[in-house]
Amino acid sequence: MTTVDSPAAVAIAPALRRLYFVRFAFAIVWAALLFLTAARLGPLGVALLVVYPLFDVAAAVVDARSSHATRSVRGLYANIAISLLAAIGLAVAGASGVPAVLRVWGAWAIVAGLVQLIVAVGRRAMGGQWPMILSGGISVLAGGSFIVGAAAANPTLTNVAGYAVVGGVFFLVSAIRLGRATQGN
Question: What domain count does the chain have?
């Protein structure tokens, strides 16, 4: 069993755990809403697409505030900038159709996945980070598949909803594991 080692990790672990539970719930609700609207890319669909990276920004801000004493804060600031750019890009791409949205979403998934991977590797001694490490790696691969999928005959956003569900499950597993790790202290 992995345990929380440093005093800084002990301090941020409960906040991270709560944040991960919130991220799980948000991802599930968001994915269900996107799945219901994915048949056509209307104003509601575009709004949902923009909200996801904006929620990621808010989550990274909360994470950075609780993690200010750790080295992971630089990666979180990078994630904030990347996700803000993604939100703007998705708002613009939404006017061009599903292929453009998939390209922007894919690029964001690749870069944000790399950042998530780096932050999680840096936090691995805290416990509960292996799901985040896997999620970051999978995000990079999924991003590539979104970009490739943009060239399909009938591109769809349903895979984006699935991506959010998988990411949400990783947050849930990480929250549970992080809770177990902190109980050892």
Answer: 1
